[in-house]
Amino acid sequence: MKDCVYVFCDSIQLEFLAAGMWDGAEYRGTIVVGPCISKAYPPQLLREMIHKERLPLVMQRQLHQCYNTLTMVDEAKQHAISSLLINVLTPGMRQPQRIEIALPPSEDTAVKFNDDLEQDRTLIERRYASENKLLHAIAKGDPHMLKTAMEEGKGISWPYRHPNAPVRSMKNLSFSANTLFRKAAESAGVHPFYLDSVSGKFAIQIEQAQSIAELQCLHEEMLQAYCRMVRELSVAALPSMVKEAVTYIRFNIDQPLSLNRIAETLGVHPSYLSRTFKRELGMTLTEYINKLRIEEAKYVLDHGNASVTEAALSVGYNDPNYFSKVFTKLEHVTPKNYRKRKKGYA
Hints:
Number of helices: 15
Structural class: alpha+beta
Order of helices and strands: EEEHHHEHHHHHHHHHHHH
Strand content: 5-15%
Largest sheet: 4 strands, mixed
Radius of gyration: 32 Å
Distance between the termini: 80 Å
Helix content: 55-70%
């Protein structure tokens, strides 16, 4: 009917306003506003409603959260909305006729709620199982396990807390994931110093992202980065002394390093440190220092315009010739040719 606004109230007290769209005498469609509620629903009223509708008691918390997110529209506000609808849809100043209709409860309401609840429970279990597999793969530093977990997790959706702002919702999920991945890597023995830098970098990239696709790419990049950090930087499985030696070397890679200096710092005998280090890592302490220094030097040569001499000095080699000798032995290419090859003009 023209000039009528229908107020529908269903069995769980959700209200909807509906008005017809007319072109002269021809009906074109209906505009529906809602859902909304016209009064507050404290826990006691919710329990009564759940009992009356024979809904599962576990739904009380979900319903309470749902009702807290709905706009409360009392009768006066409903009248104002009704007037707006009628006068927008039908030009001219008209007073709407309000018709209230109580929707009867469906016989299968309880069945539907139980079915939905079971589906929700199953989906939530799948989400958390997938998340735990990803965290386990990161903590193991296992790229193959990570790839499998990522494949298994495809197609499992996570709810948007802000449905009208999907990018914002995805950013919030990404911030949470960044924290979880960082904690998984920390539990595997990666020093917080390294984690803080990577976590901070990802936090900035997440906030600057402009699309869902960009955030999805960042999600995969975070997984792979934290997994790689565990593989390359974890010291969790090492004996305490070797763990301290590795940490000392990493934090002082640009300083003069020797077996005697490190042993003195740790308060142990040099020969004991040397034997234990070789047994645990499969290389001598000097070989380990050179390996780390060359990896750092490669990064310096890859990023920026540092000369070979500057790269050598930046990672603790005072003799550029010795640096070139060690670099060539480990990488099978001179530092100069390595940089040319990486820059693409060799």
